[in-house]
Amino acid sequence: MESVLDAAPARAERLALPGTLGAALLGSTSILVGLLWDISWHATIGRDTFWTPAHLAIYLGGVLAGLSAGWTALATTFARRPAETESPSVGLWGFRAPFGAWVTVWGAFAMITSAPFDDWWHNAYGLDVQIISPPHVVLAAGIFAVAFGVMLQAVAVQNRSAEAAQGAQGGPSRRLPALVFAYTAGLGLLAVSTLFLEYSEPNVQHGGIFYKVSCAAYPLLLVAAGRAVRLRWPATVTAGVYTAIKLAMIWILPLFPAQPRLAPIFNPVTHMWPPFFPLLLVVPAVAVDLLLRRFDRPETRRPWLLALGLAVAFFVTFLAVQWFFAAFLLTPAARNWFFAADQWTYRARLGERRYQFWDWRGDPFTAGAAAAALLCGTISARVGLAWGGWMARVRR
Amino acid sequence: MTGRMLRNAAGLVPGSRRAALLAAPLGVLLLCGHVGSPTVFFDGAAGPFPVHVVVRPPGVIPGRAEVAVRISPEPVARGVSRVTVRPLQWDAGRAGAPPADEAERVRGERGLWTAQLWLMTASSYDIEVEVEGRVERAASGQQGGPSPRPADGPSTGRPTAPMGEGQGRGTVVVPLSTARTRALGMQRGLGVTLAALGLFLFGGLINLVAAGVRESTLPAGEAPSDGRRRAARRAMVVCGILLAAALAGGKHWWDAVDQAFRQRLFRPFSCSATARAEGSGRRLDLVIHDPRWTSGEQGDLLPEHGKLVHLFLIREPGLDAFGHLHPVRLGPARFAATLPPLPAGSYRLYADITQESGFAQTLTTTVRLPTPPPPPAPTDAAPQVLPDLDDSFRLSPALTIRPQAVAAISPLNGGLTMTWQRRTSPLVAGREVTLRFATGNPDGSPVPLEPYMGMLGHAVVLREDGGVFVHLHPMGTVSMSAQQALTRHLRGGAATDPGPARTTTTDAASPAATATGGMPGMSGMEGPGADGARTGEVTFPYEFPAPGRYRIWVQVKCGGHILTGVFDTEVGRAG
Fold first, then answer.
1. Which of A42, B470, B476, B555 qualifies as a FRET site for B313, CA 20 to 30 Å off?
2. Closest partner residue to B99 among A120, A152, A259, by Cβ?
């Protein structure tokens, strides 16, 4: 198993991927799959313990990513190499490791810290009274840190391998590290979309709040990926990863039989609930890619203008496809395993309402809502540009 | 985890000062149904299967209740193939209930099944226990343990149609009032651990940000410039400030959650009592002035053993005078009783009530009794409130703890005695025990018992400091009227969901039954220890929730007289 120690420029030809990055990818994937699984668990079965498979997938994923990053830190710090100073690492409290590994370790610690805190919270205030509670926020911070840390580990490998390849014809593969980085960015996109899952039901996709939330959340990652992933269609591939994992989840989860264990039960489901068909983020991602390719040039940088352009492109294309797709999801044609639009949680009161658009939180889609969405999108894209620009330069 | 929860539920957790204040004036943690004694015990039968059910409710809602079902005797238990439990919320019934949970048989324990139930609301529940298995005909009518009861008791479901040769099924319902009863402090070890982890995360994050700004974009081997080092320090400060602000926000949020939780902690209805001379006697007035009750939104009271209120007066200190009264209702929230000849002094007052939902609670207050008036002159006016025929009182020496004895004897009126038939092992908090009392003649021969308010016996258990108060019956701690009310509700819902047929004696609350204070189909007479009517023995299933010095009053009826035995004991700490 190779480690990041072998990533010295002199040996760049053999730089495929460090084995620890593989473990980190696995851990990060496990967390995200576990998260969707857990949401499905609460929507189907309702009651749980710490030891449900979904919880184990989340926590063991965090532990795996954290341990692999911790191992990297120990190996980097204590490696007896003459060129120790040349190994790509940053110093923290006397130890050295790639920056992404440190972020991953921090996230794993936060996740582990949340477990006893959450247990106490349930004992003190009742079982899962609120989804958004202080211990859950600590857990979420940990999950995002792990996902972000794995992204950083991947981007550093991508950037170094790209630099190494510039000098050497027929050198290392630049494509594989870039694809790995795009995969981690896709996981990040999935994490963000999961955070806003309850704003993403098909029934609310003609309301104002859905577009505001979407414009605030998704351009950030798509633009950052668009700038930092060294592929021809960076944002598109990132959105594709999100779509693929989400589709796999909504197709696989219903294969498992399950029944509600908490009252009241308004919808006696018989199998695990699939959490919503993925948003069609691939389409605005193509627009982001095209726009960045055309206008994101070092000599003509006007970041706020570019951010506005990106926001408009995202918003217009997303609105154009998602608006009609949402309407389609409410038709009988979508009530099948592929679109899973006829699946409801055990708490859902079935009725006509389930195939209608809701005026959710009294926030219809108006010109004002569109302007607010554009404003959110511009800020999101601007932060994404800065973040992506920085990630494109991360080498350690 | 759950064990700790239960321990905390049983006692006052250090640090939960506000919870203690809420429990003023007695300075104890109050729990619904009884005081300081949340565990529910029930002895009865599920169709052909005699069951002993213990429910340990959670201290917080939503929370997990632990249910233990013991089936005895051994031959009956061996034939049992399946035990299920299900929580039915009183106003949701079976239609809104989750599927039944199969209880697990405990390895190494004879005839014991356990399960955990999630209870989602602070409300009144009916825990439905269903037992399925081979019916041991030879086992019925066994000596010793509770004998299977005919199908017409108020608490039993009728065995459903035979499922096969020798197979049977029966259900029984155990009422449970759930409430948020305790505020959990942070244990010191956990607090220190979390604080240390938090500090580590805080320090780690700001140093991480600094390291990222300083070095992350440099080519390998290049040392950071002074400018980068300065930028890293600035980033560290900014990140520290932002993080501290986030933590302050989090603390504010946590405090708000905690405060809201404490406001929703269960408190029994507030009430007050006064006593004054009236005519030739003394009169006690009890007023419930809690807005939750006076608003009239909570439904009415249900009679328990034919009485709306069971009121206990216990003189402090010393616990040397005891009264069990049944006040007359004068208004929606006003009750009055004529006092028996209890000596003057300061008394603790406990009033057991059950609401229409089946939610049972014990109201507490204190009252000072004036000196009893001299015997009435013929000209004195009769009291306006007539004493209830089932009222009783007992005077005894102040509480003392003698060395643990196998048999403690309490003299009764008329030369009779009551003997507490104890085991030699000392009483320990948190361990189940059967309290067994035998009433006998001076020559030791047994005295046949009669029903006293529908029960073979009533026991009141009080810890010296008032921190534990519970009213027991041979069938356990449950409120019988709650059980009947819940069963009625369930039967009402049976139109849409025909479950196992149930037979319930509903006329317990009828005027006739109330007037006589008796109850047809008295489960206490037919169920556990039914032999007591002959042998003079009465038993109560219980578990002392906490260590301390206790006094127990045991009330039986014999020869038309209500007799009260008094016993003192010390309960030790477990382990």
1. B476
2. A259
